[in-house]
Amino acid sequence: MTESQYARVDQNSADVIILGAGPAGLVLGNVLLRAGIDCVVLERAGREYVQNRARAGFLAPNTVRVLERNGLAEGLRSRGLEHGVCEFRTGDGRFRLDYRQLGRGEPHTVYPQHELVTDLLGSFLDAGGRIRFETEAVAVSEADGPAPSVTVREGDGHPGRWRARYVAACDGRHGAGRRSLPPGSVRRHHLDHGVSWLGLLAEAPPSLDAVGYALHPRGFAGHMARSTEITRYYLQCEPGTPAGAWGEERIWDELGLRMRAAEYGPLLRGPIVQRAVVHLESDVLEPLRHGSLFLVGDAAGLLSPSAAKGANLAVLEAEILARALVSDLAQGDPEPLARYSERCLVHIWRAQEFSHWMIGLLHGGPAAGESSCFQEGLRRSRIAALRDSRAQQNWFAENYVGV
Ligand code: RFL
């Protein structure tokens, strides 16, 4: 489309344009709105889709504190469940870690991400926030100048353009924020772990009162409660396996086998209501800024789901950026904005390091094939250290709930 065609479509503006209504975008929007900063959220999907997309569930104590101090924790305080135990099952037996009693002595709060998003959305709209659903950001332009713009495609296919002082890309790893970075402006550090998980959501109560990590010669299996009625399971599968490849019966049989249900108790079965293959990949972008364009949440760095850190980092980064934007726009102090990238990267690399350690614990390491028996030896040794060493358990607990 030419400049003159754009001139004919509506010109919209806000001080801050937020791309994406996930945890990052909605925390950012809420904090900015409460501080009186003019902002708008542009979201590709419809409201119903956004409110029903089941993903994360384990919130770190610091995430709860961030939400609390911004008045966003009412739902999770009343409906979230405290969680503090994980159980490891291997060919050498099983053991439990009550991580509430270890490290800093703090639990997780189990609260499904789509419920958190629903709460955040409700509070944003109640406070008069502006959000455009079914509005896909196509590109961010002129980010190296003082007036960046975002070209969009509305739900009915019409193009549009928004102007802002700043753009916050909270639109995930495939969003317009990342796509719009000029080549060479930002470095991407990427690691493919060579492992895939079939992520399943079952309409079935949890089968154990702990996060379950099962290490089996046939592959990893995981169990994580989402509520008293819903449980997330993971099954390691061959990379490239289509999500629909396995029937429900086979899934439950395989979960039972790998979780050693015959020894430790049966799994409570129910319909599988969602499934997706997640290939374990990690990346970090550096720096998290190009001019007036900032990267937040999954757009800033992708974490493998091995340690459940992604949504937690998204919330933390959103608060850091919100405060920095308020300093700049309301108080005329650009210093915190200048330090945004550096501050967040410290947290991101720490979370990446622990997630990577978890993959080593659950899978032995990125290398498979010829070195796999060596990797298996390392993995058994790591598990034994976690079972036997109080120092190792404290280290684990601190990192497991920390962001
Ligand atoms: P989100 O949640 O992906 O939201 C991005 C939003 O941007 C929209 N969007 C666009 N909008 C406008 N224009 C465009 N061009 C757009 N492109 C995309 C999308 O529609 C969407 O609404 O990113 P955000 O806010 O950065 O939040 C990140 C978290 O969602 C993610 O890190 C976690 O879900 C990761 N994760 C977990 N994290 C945890 O902390 N604890 C967990 O227990 C946990 N479990 C998980 C997970 C991720 C999983 N999957 C699906 C990879 C379990 C799974 C299975």
CATH level 4 superfamily of one domain = FAD/NAD(P)-binding domain
What is the CATH top level name of one domain? Alpha Beta
- The total count of strands amounts to 21
Q: Give the names of the bound compounds.
A: 8-demethyl-8-dimethylamino-flavin-adenine-dinucleotide
* 3D shape: globular
Which whole number gives the mean pLDDT? Answer: 94
- Work out the helicity level: 25-40%
Low-confidence stretches: 1-10
Oligomer: single chain
Total DSSP helices: 14
| CATH-derived topology of one domain | FAD/NAD(P)-binding domain
Q: What characterizes the major β-sheet?
A: 8 strands, mixed
Note the gap between the termini: 44 Å
What is the percentage of strand-forming residues? 25-35%
CATH architecture name of one domain:
3-Layer(bba) Sandwich
- CA-atom Rg in angstroms: 22 Å
Structural class, from secondary structure content?
alpha/beta
Strand order in the largest sheet: 7-6-15-16-17-14-18-21
